[in-house]
Design goal:
Layout: H1 2-5, H2 8-24, H3 28-44, H4 48-64, H5 68-85, H6 88-104, H7 108-127, H8 133-142, H9 144-156, H10 160-169, H11 173-183, H12 192-196, E1 208-215, E2 220-226, E3 233-238, H13 247-262, H14 302-311, E4 323-327, E5 353-356, H15 360-368, E6 378-384, H16 401-414, E7 419-421, H17 426-432, E8 438-442, E9 444-445, E10 452-453, H18 467-470, E11 471-472, H19 474-478, E12 486-489, E13 498-500, E14 503-505, H20 507-513, E15 518-522, H21 528-543, H22 548-560, H23 568-571, E16 574-578
Parallel strand pairs: 1-4, 4-5, 6-7, 6-8, 8-12, 12-15
Antiparallel strand pairs: 1-2, 2-3, 9-10, 10-11, 13-14, 15-16
Helix pairs in contact: 2-3, 3-4, 4-5, 4-6, 5-6, 6-7, 6-9, 7-9, 8-11, 9-10, 11-15, 11-20, 13-14, 16-21, 21-22
């Protein structure tokens, strides 16, 4: 059609689309033909941007064909054009691709120089995005190759600390920006130079910290171990799942296999804290996805043992103390860390307290601002009235009596009046959430993001609530200024989200970015009766003065040793993200007196 119309620009774009399609399906010869045609038309029309893009595409296809010298020539042409027209994005991509070609040719100094220049260009571009969080997340995803290539090459040159600094600088960048903004911190305090200076931030954690990086190029997991006042150590573990395309797919399939073996999606008697009734596919949101009646034996826990061998075993002999902090990467964000199984069939949480952090930088920021988290009292939300939330088929969400019971119990423990039923509106929750030290929400949660369904706002445009009237979305959370030390999201999948180079983008990240010091989440649909027992034990330990990680470990132990809830699926979904907080008696707001009853376990 473009030819018939004499539309040269349209014809060139069509060739570019055909080239990308053939490249995607692995027909690189045809891709090269169509990219060549795209280049010729761009040159004919003196379309410099199109010419630069075509050169870059020809370069990547040459990389696919392992003709690295030709690829370098193509990318250098793209580099020249990018400089000519002042296109920084084109420059960043070209430098990154040249770096990758030199890396494949084992010319490490040249690879390092180009990766460093690419990262520098991308950082300059990123600074222009200012406070646009979603743009930053997308941008970081697009330039991931440069960041990962930089730390890979540094590792190959045996520059262990510099490699860790490079990997850390690429972690949770947008989240760090949100925290800086909330806390009023200066950028220069948390630069790469500070990280590296005398191991600055790298030795700032009091517990052994395992920093994980998924190395797709080498099909392995790279592991750094940080301990206070000790040198940074590095080890690696090759992945041996040959059916997957790369390391990310290997880990994804392994984690999915571990979920299936634990029976987290099998049936059980409990209420369904889910939003799936609102969707025809009935797959989007759950609170409890009923459990399997068959016990999981040692053979069934094989995926958990394999995960242990990949991320813990290589550095086990180097770990000091009784707590491990994990900085996950990629799919490992969704691994049930506490349930990883050692060769003697002991779970990781039986030997160590475990928590995860998005990055070392984010934890350092939180630790540097103890005065920021000055809220008092607790906001406890349970069983919001969502009976008016329907879709076009008239489906309604069910009430959550266990969630209400959970909220009432925790309200007694924390001496707080819970918001339940019609009182738990979105506007009321947002009104109270900024001033409290503890936030606890037991409600329906969305599978993809962990976002939470609350009671619809009474003042709304339509009788039938729109999603913005009741759904506590990530944007809602990030628009408030939290002072909470601890946020507990007792909803299904509250620890989930879209896995990006930034990390897991979901409701838990939103709470961290809004100012929460730590967030307790669930990785999968949680059993209601087990959750009630878990939360009761967790809060009783918390008000006794134990830290959040200690309280978490006690609650897991309580369920693990019980007759009814000993299966992994009951106690393993709970994950603590962020700092290890302790509540003081000042965190209890004055209110109606509640008698707190301890229960023997």
């Amino acid at each position: 059609m473009a030819k018939d119309l004499g539309d040269k620009a349209g014809e060139g774009r069509a060739y570019g689309h055909l080239g990308r399609t053939y490249q995607h399906i692995g027909d690189y010869d045809k891709a090269m033909v169509y990219y060549d045609r795209r280049l010729c038309i761009a040159q004919e029309l003196e379309d410099k941007a199109g010419e630069g893009a075509a050169c870059g595409n020809l370069g990547t296809v040459s990389q696919n064909l392992r003709d690295y010298m030709k690829a370098i020539d193509c990318h250098k042409q793209q580099l020249r054009i990018g400089k000519e027209i002042g296109d920084k994005g084109m420059l960043g991509r070209a430098y990154s691709n040249i770096g990758q070609c030199f890396e494949m040719l084992k010319s490490l100094p040249e690879a390092l120089e180009n990766y460093q220049t690419s990262v520098k260009v991308f950082n300059e571009m990123r600074s222009l995005l200012q406070s646009e969080d979603q743009w930053k997340i997308g941008f970081r995803n697009e330039c991931n190759q440069a960041y990962t290539g930089l730390w890979r090459v540094l590792l190959k040159q045996e520059k262990l600390t510099e490699a860790l600094v490079a990997a850390e600088e690429g972690r949770a960048q947008s989240l760090a920006d949100l925290i800086k903004s909330q806390y009023g911190l200066q950028e220069c305090q948390y630069s790469g130079k500070f990280l590296e200076k005398e191991n600055g931030m790298l030795n700032s954690t009091s517990s052994s910290t395992i920093f994980l990086a998924v190395n797709v190029f080498e099909n392995q997991v790279d592991i750094w171990l940080l301990s206070r006042e000790k040198p940074v150590l590095h080890r690696k573990r090759k992945l041996d799942h040959h059916r997957a395309k790369n390391a990310n797919e290997t880990l994804q399939s392994l984690i999915q296999f571990s979920y299936e073996n634990m029976g987290v999606r099998a049936k059980v008697k409990c209420e369904n804290r889910s939003l799936d009734a609102l969707h025809k596919q009935r797959s989007v949101v759950e609170r409890s996805s009923k459990t399997c009646s068959q016990p999981i034996n040692q053979e069934g826990n094989l995926p958990l043992a394999t995960l242990y061998s990949y991320v813990i075993a290589p550095v086990l002999d180097l770990i000091d103390g009784d707590e491990i902090i994990i900085v996950p990467d990629g799919p490992l964000w969704l691994a049930p860390s506490a349930a990883l199984l050692n060769p003697f069939f002991r779970y990781l949480c039986e030997s160590f307290r475990v928590r995860v952090i998005p990055s070392i930088t984010s934890l350092k920021m939180i630790a540097d601002c103890p005065e920021y988290h000055s809220g008092l009292g607790a906001l406890v939300v349970g069983d919001p009235d969502v009976t008016k939330v329907t879709n076009s088929y008239g489906d309604q969400l069910e009430p959550l009596p266990f969630a209400r019971k959970e909220a009432q119990l925790i309200g007694q423990i924390l001496n707080a009046v819970p918001l339940t039923g019609k009182l738990a509106t979105k506007c009321e929750v947002l009104k109270q959430i900024s001033s409290v030290a503890v936030v606890h929400i037991a409600a329906h949660g969305r599978m993809e993001t962990g976002e939470i369904a609350l009671s619809p706002n009474p003042e709304r445009k339509s009788q039938i609530p729109a999603e913005e009237d009741y759904m506590l979305a990530m944007t809602d959370v990030m628009n408030v200024k939290l002072r909470a030390k601890l946020v507990v999201l007792s909803c299904c999948h509250s620890g989930r989200g879209e896995i990006k180079a930034e990390g897991v983008v979901g409701i838990a990240r939103a709470f961290m970015g809004a100012g929460a010091r730590s967030v307790l989440v669930s990785l999968w649909a949680i059993d209601d009766e087990a959750t009630l027992e878990f939360m009761k034990n967790f809060y009783h330990n918390l008000v006794k003065g134990r830290s959040s990680s200690e309280s978490l470990n006690h609650a897991m132990k309580c369920l693990r040793e019980s007759e009814k809830f000993s299966d992994v699926k009951y106690w393993a979904p709970f994950t603590l993200i962020g700092d290890d907080v302790t509540l003081s008696t000042n965190n209890k707001k004055s209110g109606p007196h509640r008698e707190t009853q301890e229960t023997d376990r």
